[in-house]
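Amino acids appear as letters; backbone shape is given numerically. Here is one record.
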Amino acid sequence: MAEEQKPIVFTRRSSGLVRSVSVFSAFALVMCHTVGGGINKLMIFAEYNNPGANVALAFFITGILALVTAYVYSELSALMPRTGGDYIFISRGISPLLGFITSWGFWFTEVLSFGIIAFYDIPIWGLGFQIAGAATKNTALLDLGTKISQIGPTFWLGMLMVAIFGVVALFGMRKYTTMINILLILPLVGSIIMIIVLLKSPAVAHPSWDATWGAGMWDTVVRLSKQATDHWVQTPFNMTATLMAGVGGLWAYIGVTSASYAGGEVKNPERNMSIAMLGGAAVIVFYYVVLSIEVYRMYATPDGSFISMYCNVFQHKDLWGQLTAIYPHAPNPYLPVFAAALMPGQYIFQFIVAISAAIWLMNDIPVFLIVCSRQIFSWSFDRMFPERFAAVNERWHTPHNAIWLTTIGGFIGVILSFVSERGIAGAWVAAMDTTMLYEFAVVFGSLAAVVLPFVRPDIYERGRRLSWFGVPVITIFGIISFFANFWYLFIAGTWLKATTDLMLQVIWMAAGVAIFVGYYIYNTKKGVDVRSIYQQIPPA
């Protein structure tokens, strides 16, 4: 009688994925994931939610942190170029359980952000229609832009956007990244126009705003804002508030590590990961800091930031109702609203700025889907999640079941945004929820970089092995990244309520532990040597 063959260690002997992602596409993943809601919405709300904050300084501080984190992850990606990102780094460098639960938490972050961005992108498209309507004196376009910017239509259109990108993702990484590359190039013109127009003198802000959005609106906003002092009042510079505002910056920079999650699909990862992640992070930090300096300088007033006053009115339903009763097409507070206001009568440029911002925000969505679906795939390939989610379409080489599950998670993110938008802090708290678990993941990703040369020399010796005074460079940067990210992990947590937000995260993470333990027991009973799974890098 033939001896019974033991099951293979992984789900199968090869991943089924193909290396079709070029260096430019990997760079595009970083850029498109990152430039979106953080700069267009959270940067605008940062001083409103943190009175006394210097928003540009907050984005600079967190930008330095983003650069260090990008370096650490680019080095780890070169050493372990497999799909799954920090799940692979942590599970092979520190602990399988830690690898799974940190990835499980970050998946929660990403999949909710997938839906959050879909929800908040719609009003920016609405702004584009409003500008087009004003340019052509077309009331129908004005009304359409105003209508889709309201919370009800935004919800349904956000759900539709999630569904469309979920379907398109099924047809192969090559086609999908080509689409992402195009979506990266399209909004660059609007970004350049925005940087240039924000160089104007602050003296033009008040008259330009009224000329664009309605005579007397500026003074009306200032008057209405003074009626609500429960959340925002003019406050002198405060470093604590600046650090708190930096949590929005962290959320804005999350995408600098995104290429690592498609590590098994990037060509020449040893070289291209550094170019994509470090290069992308450097461009993004420059862009974010410059824009935050410019827009808050432009809209500074003796009574405080006009941007924060406008946010204050917007977030109070009664005050917003009074404003829109006078100005029915008053736009939602997004960055392009404040940039477009500086170009009264220049409808083409205003339209380009608004549509570019909408495309930037929309660009996040396909990359969120890639990151989330590849995390699910990597768990399943290691047999720590239902194996059906490791299935890869033979024609398109995409993990189709993982993509469908991610799409469902995106729908939930839209629902969360719909609910949170009705609160005073709105999207800010939703972003803090996601930032908390992102920080938890990169804290241990940084620790993996610290100890990898010592606990897994077999992996470390495959790389460049740079050192400084005998200490591996990856260890040095890992310590810096750990320190800063660990600090911001707690700063992000101060925004959250212990009985709701934090409890939800604890329940989610506990569920992740239970899933890991359950599959560990299940696989052991099947005769799978689970320990050997995590002693090796998954096959390509």
Notes: The chain has a mean pLDDT of 89. Residues 96-136 form the longest helix (41 residues).
